[in-house]
Specification:
Elements (H helix, E strand, L loop, with lengths): L1 H7 L5 H24 L16 H7 L11 E4 L4 E3 H6 L3 E7 L7 H15 L8 E6 L7 H10 L6 E5 L2 H11 L16 E6 L4 E6 L4 H12 L20 H10 L20 H4 L2 H9 L1 H6 L3 H10 L10 H24 L6
Parallel strand pairs: 3-4, 4-5
Antiparallel strand pairs: 1-2, 1-5, 3-6, 6-7
Length: 348
C-alpha cells in the first residue's frame, strides 16, 4: 500500500522532483570546485564557512533552511528530531532510502553502507553522518528499525529514520532520492546515496551499491579529508588476479556473507562448504531467484529467513554468473580445507 501511495503521488509531485533534479544539476560545478579546494567540512572558507556571517552564508547557500523542510522524524532510538535543525544544519551527510520488508536491494545497500562505516571508523558521527530513511513508515516503527540497525551493525553517527508518510515523501523529493521514474520500480526506489555538505550547499548523488572502499574514498575526496597515515605507493601495487566468480562474490555478496574467514555468520550465513551442504540445483535456483524461492515457501529458504530475518536480494545475476559464484565458493572452500589439513596438530 505504501509503494502504491508513492506511485499515485508521483504526478502531483512532479514540480518537487524537478526542483530536486535541478539541485543536483546546479550543484555539479560546485562539487568539482569543492573537490579541488580540499577544505574540511565546516571549515572557514570564502564561500561560507563557520567564520562567515550567517546572513552571508544563507544568501549564498540556496540549499539551506529555505529549501529543506524542517519536518519531524523519529530515529530508530525513539528520539524526535527535525530534518534541518537536527540532521542537516552544519553537517556533512550521506542519505539513502530503504525499508525493512524490501524484497529488492535494500539489505545489500544497507550492508554496503555498513562496510563503508567500518572503513571510515571514527569519522562517522564526527565528520559525516549516515541517515537511512524508511519509505514504509507504517511498518517501520522505531522498534522495527532498531532491530534492523542492530542486524547491520549500525554504530554511532548512523540513524534510521521514520515519520509521517507525507513528510517522508516531501523529504525524498527534496533530496532527489525519489524521482517519478524511480517510483515505478519494483520497490519504489533505486539504490541511490545522496551526499551533501550543508554548510557549503554542495550535493551529489552516488550509486549506493558501489564498492565500499570506492565509496569511502569518494567521500574523502568530496569532503576534502586528508589521510593522516601514509599510504603505499601505486608502484608497490601488484596486478589483481580475479576470476569472474571471485569478483562477483567480492562486489555483490561479501558485505553480507563470509567464506570461512573466521568471521562466522554476518548478515547472512557463512558460505564455507555450502556446496557440500546444499544441492547444486537448489543453490543455483536460490542465488538466481531468492525472492521466488522464498515466496514459494521453500523450507530451506524459509528457515534461513526465520534465522537471519533479512531477505536475500535478487541481484539479477545470469545463470552463467551464478555458476561462476558457485564455482568460486566451491574452490575457496576446498582451499580452506587443504590449508586446515596442512596445519600441525597441537602438542599433547
Amino acid at each position: 500500500m505504501m509503494r502504491a501511495n508513492i506511485r499515485a503521488g508521483a504526478g502531483s509531485a512532479a514540480a518537487a522532483f524537478t526542483l530536486a533534479a535541478a539541485l543536483l544539476t546546479m550543484a555539479a560545478p560546485a562539487v568539482r570546485a569543492h573537490e579541488a579546494s580540499h577544505h574540511a567540512p565546516g571549515a572557514a572558507a570564502a564561500s561560507g564557512g563557520k567564520d562567515a556571517a550567517p546572513s552571508a552564508r544563507t544568501s549564498r547557500n540556496r540549499y539551506g533552511a529555505n529549501y529543506f523542510p524542517n519536518v519531524e522524524l523519529t530515529t530508530h532510538l525513539g528520539t524526535k528530531v527535525r530534518l534541518y535543525d537536527d540532521l542537516l544544519k552544519g553537517k556533512s551527510v550521506a542519505i539513502n532510502v530503504m525499508f525493512t520488508d524490501c524484497k529488492d536491494v535494500c539489505p545489500l545497500e544497507t550492508a554496503m553502507l555498513g562496510e563503508v562505516q567500518k572503513i571510515l571508523g571514527e569519522r562517522v558521527g564526527k565528520d559525516i553522518f549516515f541517515y537511512s530513511l524508511s519509505i514504509d513508515p507504517e511498518r517501520d516503527t522505531p522498534q522495527v528499525l532498531k532491530a534492523y540497525a542492530e542486524k547491520f551493525g549500525a554504530g554511532p553517527g548512523w540513524l534510521f529514520l521514520t515519520g509521517k508518510m507525507e513528510d517522508i515523501k516531501l523529504v525524498t523529493q527534496k533530496l532527489g532520492l525519489l524521482r517519478a521514474r524511480e517510483a515505478e520500480t519494483r520497490d519504489g526506489h533505486s539504490a541511490v546515496l545522496v551526499v551533501g555538505d550543508e554548510p557549503s550547499g554542495q550535493w551529489t548523488r552516488k550509486h549506493a551499491l558501489d564498492n565500499p572502499r570506492f565509496l569511502a574514498a569518494m567521500l574523502g575526496t568530496f569532503f576534502g579529508w586528508r589521510d593522516e597515515q601514509p599510504q603505499p605507493s601505486y608502484a608497490q601495487a601488484r596486478p589483481m588476479e580475479y576470476q569472474n566468480g571471485q569478483y562477483l562474490f567480492q562486489s555483490r555478496c561479501s558485505a553480507c556473507h563470509s567464506v570461512g574467514q573466521g568471521q562466522g555468520d554476518k548478515v547472512g550465513p557463512d558460505l564455507r562448504d555450502v556446496t557440500t551442504r546444499r544441492e547444486r540445483a537448489w543453490l543455483t535456483r536460490y542465488i538466481q531467484f531468492p525472492d521466488r524461492v522464498l515466496a514459494a515457501r521453500d523450507p530451506i529458504a524459509t528457515a534461513l529467513f526465520e534465522k537471519f530475518r533479512v531477505r536475500m536480494p535478487n541481484l539479477e545475476l545470469s545463470r552463467d554468473e551464478v555458476a561462476a559464484v558457485i564455482s568460486y565458493l566451491e574452490s575457496r572452500s576446498s582451499d580452506l580445507r587443504v590449508q586446515a589439513n596442512k596445519r600441525p596438530l597441537p602438542a599433547r
